[in-house]
Amino acid sequence: MPQHIGIVGCSAEGAALCYRTICLEGAQWLGAHGHPEVTLHTFSLATYVERIERDDWQGVGELMIASGQKLAHAGADFLICPDNTIHQALRYVELRSPRPWVHIGAVVAQEAANRGFRRLGLMGTRWLIESDVYPAKLAERGLDYMRPTDEERDEIHRIIMEELVPGTIKPEAIAYHQQVMMRMKKAGCSAVVLGCTEIPLIMTDANSPLPVLDSTRLLARAALRRAIEEV
C-alpha cells in the first residue's frame, strides 16, 4: 500500500488545491480513481495570521507541530504543508515533529534545476518574499533569484490576502501579476516561482510571460512520488 500523506493546511484554497491534485493525479500511478490515503488538518487561518503578524514564528511552529501530531495519530507517514509562508517556522518544527516533512522550497528548487532555469522570479506574500524560505533552498542548487519591488510586494500581498485567500478572482489581479512577471522576464529571469499556494488560481503557463513553477502542484506531486515509491 502507498504511504499515508498528512497535509498540514493553513489557508483553504491552497490546501484544497493540493489535496485535489493528489487525489486526481494519483490515478497516473494507481489506476482509475486511485490515490494514496490522505488526511488533512488545519487550525483556523485567523490563528495563523495573528501569530504571523506579531512575528511569532515559534508560535506558528507550535500550530504546525500540533497539526502534525493529529495527523500522525491518524496514521500519516510523512507531512507536507501547502503554504509557503509558514515554512519559515519549520526550523522550530522539524526536530520535534512526529513525522518527517517534505519542504516545498526544496521541491521547487529541484524542479527549477531539473528544467535548467538559472534565475527565478519570486512571487508570494510579503512575509514569504522577505524570508529566506526560497533563497536558502535555491542557493543549495546554485540558483539565482529576483524579488518584487517594495511596491509590488505590497500589492501582491494585498491581492493574495484580500482576494485569493477568500477565493475571489479578478481580471485586475491577473493583469497585475502579468505586469510584474514581464518586468522580471526583462530583468533576466527564466521562470517564476508561484510562491503562494493561491497564485495558481489565477496564473498558469497559459497566461504567464514566464514558465511557472507552481509550488502547490509540485508539492502534491512530490508527495505522490514519495508515497508510492517508498513503499
Describe this structure in words.
- There is one protein chain.
- With 231 residues, the protein is an alpha/beta fold.
- The chain folds into 2 domains: 5-103 and 218-229, Rossmann fold (3-Layer(aba) Sandwich), CATH 3.40.50.1860; 105-215, Rossmann fold, CATH 3.40.50.
- The chain is 51% helix and 12% strand.
- It contains 11 helices and 8 strands.
- The chain has helices at residues 12-25, 27-30, 45-53, 57-73, 90-93, 104-114, 126-129, 133-140, 150-164, 171-186, 215-229, and strands spanning 5-8, 38-41, 78-80, 101-102, 119-123, 144-146, 191-194, 212-214.
- The strands form 2 sheets. A 4-stranded parallel sheet has the order 2-1-3-4, with helices on both faces. A 4-stranded parallel sheet has the order 6-5-7-8, sandwiched between helices.
- Strand 3 (78-80), helix 5 (90-93) and strand 4 form a beta-alpha-beta unit.
- Helix 1 (12-25) packs across helix 11 and helix 6 packs across helix 11 (215-229).
- The N and C termini lie close together (7 Å).
- The model has no long low-confidence stretch (mean pLDDT 96).
